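This section describes the prediction task in plain terms. A model, or a person checking by hand, is given the sequence of a single protein chain and must write out its three-dimensional structure as a string of tokens. No templates, partner chains or ligands are provided. The sample shown here is typical of the held-out split.
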Amino acid sequence: MKKSLLLVFLFLTTATFAQKYYTKTGLTEFKASVEAFEPVEAKNNSTSAVLKVETGDIAALLFMKAFNFRVALMQEHFNENYMDSNKFPKATFKGKIEGFNLSEISDSKEYTLKGILTVRGVKKEVTTLAKFTKQGDKLRLQASFGVKPEDFEIKIPKIVSKKIAGTINISLDYEFIEKK
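The expected answer:
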């Protein structure tokens, strides 16, 4: 009996102390600007993300209303007319960094990042290159990819369609610290 309790304890301890890195201040930006018109871009400095080092699993969560625009009216339209942020308050990403190995990153290294991005309740597979950089005890992830509004059932009214890019560029810059 004592032996089986000890085995259960060791298993739970190992599972509990799996090496994870996290951030609550990740930067997610998007740009949907078209030349000759006012810039359509916003920043979200409060993306939460967790990286499980042993498996390369990664998950991120951001609240749509945390995107900040230079123009308040643009932010209002983004939340009310395009993203329907009251009904769909968050976006998520759940994926895997292929072949991820923390010990291989002496300075910086690129890996393929694949996963499912969920926006407005619509799921879309995303694949991109992610650059990881070690900075002391911190791990930085930088990546970018493009999505189309129609991928997430976002309808752009014809009157403003020429002012918004057909592909929206998303940039990630997350500084992870080890969860202790």
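For orientation: Residues 2-16 form the longest helix (15 residues).
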